[in-house]
Structures are given as C-alpha cells and as structure tokens.
Amino acid sequence: MNTAANSRPTVCFGALAYRPDGAGVSTYQRELLAQLPALLPGAELSALVQADAASSLPSTVSAVSRPVAAGARRAWHGVAPLRGFDVFHGLDVDLPLVGPRATVATVHDLSVFDVPWAFSRYRARGEQLLVRTSLTRADLLIAVSEFTAERIADKFGRAAVVVPLAPADWARVPEASEVDRVRAGYDLPPRFILQVGTVEPRKQVGMLAEVARALDIPLVLAGAGSTGPQAPATAIGLGYVDAADLPALYAAATVVAYCSEYEGFGLPPVEAMACGGAVVASAVGALPQVCGDGAVLVARANVESWTAAVRPLLHDTVGNAALRERGLAAASKLSWRATAEATVGAYRGAGLIP
To answer: N or C: which end of the chain has fewer CB within 10 A?
Structure first.
C-alpha cells in the first residue's frame, strides 16, 4: 500500500478488549497504545473500543466507540464494516470485513484450533471462523511468539512477524512493607504455592492441588473462578486481586506455578518473574521461549513431575533466591517500548506506512 499522497496516514487499532486495569490481551492493547503515539507522530491514531473504555485512551488516540457488549455481539463489533482508515490493526485478530485500505492482525495463539476442547462448542466454531477469516485476509500478520508464528505457518501457510510482549507496567519488585501489607490483607499462610489466572480446564488447577497436597503446602488461587465451584475444595481462593496487590502477592509466594496445557505467549509467568517470584511453569507452547532460564520448566503434565520440580524450591532457600534473580534478569529483557518499535517496524517493512 502506498500512503505517500497522504501526509498523515490514518491508523485505527481494534481494541475491544481494552480495559484500564485488564490482564492478558487487555494488557497488550493498553501498553501498546500507550507507546505508539510517540513512534507514529505523523499519523492520525484511533482505537475501536467499547464505550466505557473510551475516556481512558491516551489523549493522542481518538476513540471509535461501540456499545458495551460480550460474546457474539462484541465479535460483530470487531468485524463490522469500518471505513475511512488507511490501516486497521486488529490487536486481537478480528478485522472489519470491509473498509480499511490495509489490515494487520496480531495473533496471540491458535488455541481454538489446537485445544478446541477448552472452549464451548459454539464458541470454538465461532472463533475458528473469525480467526480463519482474519488470518487469510490480513495484509500483515504479527505473532506474539515464535511458537505462534510456527503454528500460523503450519496451519495457514503464512509468515508472521514475531513481536514479543512484555510485563505490564505494574509488574515490579515490591517493597518489603507492601509484601507485609498484602500478607495481612489476604490472610496468607507463611508458605504457599500460588497460581494466578482464570480457573479453566487448560490451567490444570486440579492437578496442581494434588501437587500441593503431596508436598503438604497450601495452594492459593487468584483470579476469575478461584472462589467458584470449579476451584479445588482444598485451595484458598482469593477471587479477583487488584493489580496493585499482584507484585507483593507474587513475591510473597514460596513458588508461583503456571500449570497450563497451552500458551501462545504466557504473560502471567513473565509478570511474576518481573515481580521477583520463583516461577515453575509448564514446558508447553511459547513458555520455554518466553521464560528461558528465568523459570523452572516442567516437561510432563503429571503430579510426579510437578512435585519433583516444586519440592526443591520449598526447602532450598539459596536455590529459590537464585531462581528469583534469574527470573528478574529474563523479564528485564522485555519492554513495551521494544514491542511498539518492532510493531512500527513491521508496518514499515510491509509498506503500510511511510
């Protein structure tokens, strides 16, 4: 695409998951939109967002508002025709069916194809159609990891530019007083295994609860569903935890577990590493690439393997501290500035902006 005739190219970002304090994909959308204006000073920037998030966008990014919605209705808002933009970058795959002159799609994972059992049948089929349509139509694909890029090539025969994510801006080593405050506020046990994230089948919290029982140490869960019926009865559920408390929670944990069966990137373990947590994670998907030697990686998804990986960290204080230092070093190599610079570089490499 040639935008030379337009001295101020118009770029719109699909950011319907954008939330000021959201996690996961919302973190990506929030942090990237905070960085891009400085790197695209000659462009007019807009973001397609839900109406309740419009006021929290950066001042240099105009809002294209849609009603607050969920499920199929929100998906329609992401693909509905949208005209008047030179480039549309879907920050979570979805692209308008018609309108923009060129399109970019960020692909976080292909979980709806690789682990469809983790979704309802209706949702899996709908999202498969959405992802397939976007990945075959987009002028440029951005993958958040080498693993996701490889899956795109295998499944769709297309190349993607790899642009890694980074820890959220709140992810930093807390002061000792913060750790004491969070310990008291949540009535945490002296030693515990922690897993943060939505309780869902692919996070294997049931198996992790068996590991905790085998090691005679409490399991603490934080996030959606952690106090619900799908959470193990033996676990301590904290429910939703404010982002301001997460650094101290990660640092307070004896071990931070990320017992997932599939990840296209894996922001929670990276954020835990950035907070000084001692992370043990599944050696699946992108996690070995993303965590490197900053986490203990478990190759097999069974109680015996996880128990063997976690046990030394409960008793070897020197080894536990060394893992925390390696995690900090690995997480420090990632930044949202670098993510934004690589994103703009991908636009220019594809000829989408001057």
So the answer is: C
Strand partners, 141: 105
The closest of 176, 179, 221 to 198, measured between CA atoms, is 221
Per-residue pLDDT tens digits for 210-224? 999 999 999 999 999
Neighbours of 349 (CB within 10 A): 11
Separation between Cα atoms, residue 238 and residue 220, nearest integer Å = 7
Q: What are phi and psi of 151, to 5 degrees?
A: -65, -35
pTM assigned to the model: 0.92
- Rounded Cα distance between 279 and 281, Å, is 6
> How does DSSP classify residue 92?
T
Number of Cβ within a 10 Å radius of residue 123: 15
Q: How much helix, strand and coil, in percent to the nearest 5, is found in the chain? A: 45, 15, 40
Q: How far apart are the first and last CA of the chain?
A: 10
> Within a 10 A sphere around the Cβ of 280, how many other Cβ atoms?
25
* SS3 label, residue 112: helix
